[in-house]
């Protein structure tokens, strides 16, 4: 259970709301939304309040972390529609938002062993909008499974936020359709081609403990700040 304590702070940007999240007993993750580190941040969320978070947001775990090799568990029925699940999704969105090159993220990448991934549709375009008012367009897929995949597969370039600096070529179905559930448990299907289909396959691999380097060819290492 995540306990949310709200308190109001007055800062230079006006009145903000700071949520203090206490991790559940036995949780090895630390969810800091600490008022001590908080300044009213420029990112309005939560019904127009200023939700402040520090640099201590969930880090993206790297190859070698055991959670990346586990088969993630389905989100249990009792978790749908709860603040706990909403918090996990928010943590994923914040972690992905901080990675401008990332188009999708699976829950195990922030050490959450559940079958969830998110995609940033707004980053799938060749020329994403750059204006400051730009609102992230996030797709949430819970307990996803493939319902269709094209016979045709393409060789595509691939990288991963959990395998920093490495890129390679993978074979991915050109089109794929996924059935999944929303945060409140509704079942939906979404199909796509190209980068979206590739993201579906890459992220569902994550949920099965598979990394792209397991099957990629021509893997090269490019220093991050080369
Ligand atoms: Zn990845």
Description:
It contains two helices and twelve strands; from the N terminus they run E-E-E-E-H-E-E-E-E-E-E-E-H-E. By secondary structure, it is mostly beta strands. It has two domains: 56 residues, no CATH class; 162 residues, Peptide Deformylase (Alpha-Beta Complex). It has a five-stranded antiparallel β-sheet, with helices on both faces. It has a three-stranded antiparallel β-sheet with strand order 8-9-12. A two-stranded antiparallel sheet has the order 1-2. The longest helix has 15 residues. The N terminus is likely disordered. It binds zinc ion (ZN). Zinc ion (ZN) binds next to helix 2.
Outline of this structure?
13% of the residues lie in helices and 34% in strands.
Task: State the main characteristics.
226 residues, mainly beta, Peptide Deformylase, 2 domains, five-stranded antiparallel β-sheet, three-stranded antiparallel β-sheet, 2 helices, disordered N terminus, binds zinc ion
Topology:
Elements: E1 3-11, E2 14-22, E3 44-45, E4 49-50, H1 83-97, E5 104-106, E6 116-120, E7 138-149, E8 153-159, E9 166-173, E10 175-181, E11 187-193, H2 194-207, E12 217-221
Antiparallel strand pairs: 1-2, 3-4, 5-6, 6-7, 7-10, 8-9, 9-12, 10-11
Bound molecules: zinc ion.
């Amino acid at each position: 259970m995540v306990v949310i304590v709200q308190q109001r702070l007055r800062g230079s940007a006006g009145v903000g709301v700071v949520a203090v999240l206490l991790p559940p007993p036995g949780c090895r993750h630390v969810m800091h939304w600490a008022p001590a580190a908080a300044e009213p941040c420029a990112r309005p969320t939560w019904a127009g309040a200023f939700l402040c978070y520090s640099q201590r947001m969930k880090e993206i775990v790297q190859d070698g972390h055991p959670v990346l090799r586990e088969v993630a568990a389905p989100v249990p029925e009792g978790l749908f529609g709860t603040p706990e699940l909403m918090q996990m999704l928010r943590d994923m969105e914040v972690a992905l938002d901080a990675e401008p090159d990332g188009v999708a993220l699976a829950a195990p990448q922030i050490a959450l062993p559940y079958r969830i991934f998110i995609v940033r549709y707004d980053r799938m375009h060749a020329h994403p909008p750059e204006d400051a008012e730009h609102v992230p367009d996030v797709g949430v897929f819970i307990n996803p499974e493939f319902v269709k995949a094209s016979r045709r597969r393409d060789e595509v370039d691939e990288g991963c936020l959990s395998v920093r600096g490495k890129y390679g070529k993978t074979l991915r179905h050109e089109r794929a359709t996924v059935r999944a559930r929303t945060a409140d448990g509704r079942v939906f299907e979404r199909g796509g081609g190209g980068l979206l289909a590739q993201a579906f396959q890459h992220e569902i691999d994550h949920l099965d403990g598979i990394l792209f380097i397991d099957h990629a060819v021509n893997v090269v290492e490019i220093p991050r700040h080369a």
